[in-house]
């Protein structure tokens, strides 16, 4: 907790570096197989990468990407800073075709909240032969389920506000790369632009990551079981779950209005946005006016926590039944 440091050490000023950032970065870098740089939020981390795209160059991005990412990319495209090519990220051939002459392919997998899955390895191979860099938003999978650098990607981006921290008490982001040149460019960018993390946030995230493996195992087991029970329920019209991770998205037969009521009347599951905490949270995504209209009006994104599975199911079943 210091802004000014005595000359002669690694750093002299708090915008340049901090031992708490370094501890968080060492853990995340080890897990992803590269070197990490912490930022003030997931969006700040994404911004640092987008800023490296040459003026007017093309960026390929998933139609189902996180709405904050799409909002930023559309803003850049409107101001002619980039050319934006929107693709279905699960259509590998289309993504590789769009990567031709592009500066960057932005992958999010699984996507938020549609849970589309990308073939990172095949896309990275195709993009590499076109000379195009690949970045993967690995927020939903975490390095314990997916290691994009090993699959050929050049950058990994995280919203550490979610599973990495794990307790819904931190806003933090990170970029990871295995290129020393890119590392230095992004670090210089962070120092100059100032989107630095707080010492407290990185300390909390480092503490949260001590339990990432056990939290993820437990929450994922819960998510798998809820997916199974939701699929079997006559009150549910569609369920999405990629087979791993802690997020399940679904729609109920009774429609969007009933879905809204359902999410507002739960007792175990917290009615809230965000995801990746030890407590289960859910919301109907389209209640947020910024959510793309490609997301169904009634889609509920459920972030599954580490509670007792029968408590979770009882809450789900009660709220679904009384709202329907
Ligand atoms: C939350 C989220 C972000 C944005 O991260 P912040 O830490 O909120 O800035 C980016 N990508 C995905 C997939 C997210 O879920």
Shape: globular
* Count of DSSP H/I helices: 10
Task: Compute the average pLDDT.
Answer: 97
- Helical residue percent? 25-40%
Helix/sheet category: alpha/beta
- Cα end-to-end separation: 51 Å
Number of domains: 2
The stretches of 5 or more residues where confidence is low (pLDDT under 50) are none
Describe the protein's architecture and organization:
This protein is of the alpha/beta class. It has two domains: 19-209, Aspartate Aminotransferase, domain 2 (3-Layer(aba) Sandwich), CATH 3.40.640; 212-323, Aspartate Aminotransferase, domain 1 (Alpha-Beta Complex). Helix content is 38%, strand content 18%. It contains ten helices and twelve strands. It has helices at 19-32, 42-50, 67-78, 92-99, 120-129, 180-193, 199-209, 212-232, 256-264, 309-323; strands at residues 35-39, 58-62, 83-87, 102-108, 133-137, 155-159, 173-177, 236-240, 247-252, 270-271, 281-284, 300-303. Helix 4 runs parallel beside helix 5. The radius of gyration is 20 Å and the shape is globular. The termini are far apart. The site of pyridoxal-5'-phosphate has 16 residues, from helix 2 and helix 3. Pyridoxal-5'-phosphate (PLP) binds next to helix 2 and helix 3.
Secondary structure: elements and pairs:
Blueprint: H1 19-32, E1 35-39, H2 42-50, E2 58-62, H3 67-78, E3 83-87, H4 92-99, E4 102-108, H5 120-129, E5 133-137, E6 155-159, E7 173-177, H6 180-193, H7 199-209, H8 212-232, E8 236-240, E9 247-252, H9 256-264, E10 270-271, E11 281-284, E12 300-303, H10 309-323
Parallel strand pairs: 2-3, 2-4, 4-5, 5-6, 10-11
Antiparallel strand pairs: 1-7, 6-7, 8-9, 9-12, 11-12
Helix pairs in contact: 1-7, 2-3, 4-5, 9-10
The chain binds pyridoxal-5'-phosphate.
């Amino acid at each position: 907790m210091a802004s000014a440091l005595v000359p002669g050490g690694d750093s002299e000023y708090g915008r340049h570096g901090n031992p708490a950032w370094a501890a968080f970065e060492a853990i995340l870098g080890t897990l992803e197989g590269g070197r990490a740089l912490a930022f003030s939020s997931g969006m700040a981390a994404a911004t640092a990468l987008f800023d490296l795209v040459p003026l007017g160059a093309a960026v390929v991005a998933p139609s189902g990407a996180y709405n904050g990412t799409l909002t930023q990319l559309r803003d850049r495209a409107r101001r002619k800073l980039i050319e934006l090519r929107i693709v279905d990220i699960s259509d590998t051939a289309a993504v590789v075709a769009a990567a031709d002459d592009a500066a960057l392919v932005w992958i999010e997998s699984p996507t938020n909240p549609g849970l589309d899955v990308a073939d990172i390895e095949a896309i990275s191979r195709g993009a590499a032969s076109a000379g195009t860099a690949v970045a993967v938003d690995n927020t939903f999978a975490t390095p314990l389920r997916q290691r994009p650098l090993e699959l050929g990607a050049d950058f990994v981006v995280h919203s550490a506000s979610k599973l990495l921290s794990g307790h819904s008490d931190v806003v933090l982001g990170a970029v990871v790369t295995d290129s020393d040149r890119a590392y230095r460019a992004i670090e210089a960018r962070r120092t100059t632009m100032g989107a630095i993390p707080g010492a407290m946030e990185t300390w909390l995230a480092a503490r949260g990551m001590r339990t990432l493996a056990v939290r993820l195992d437990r929450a994922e087991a819960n998510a798998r079981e809820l997916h199974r029970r939701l699929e079997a329920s006559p009150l549910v019209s569609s369920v999405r779950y990629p087979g791993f991770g802690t997020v399940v998205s679904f729609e109920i037969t009774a429609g969007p209005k009933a879905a809204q009521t359902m999410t507002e009347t739960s007792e175990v599951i917290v009615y809230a946005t965000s995801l990746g905490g030890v407590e289960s949270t859910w919301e109907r995504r389209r209640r947020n006016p910024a959510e793309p209209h490609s997301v169904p009006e009634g889609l509920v994104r459920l972030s599954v926590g580490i509670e007792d599975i029968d408590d979770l199911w009882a809450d789900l079943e009660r709220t679904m039944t009384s709202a329907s």
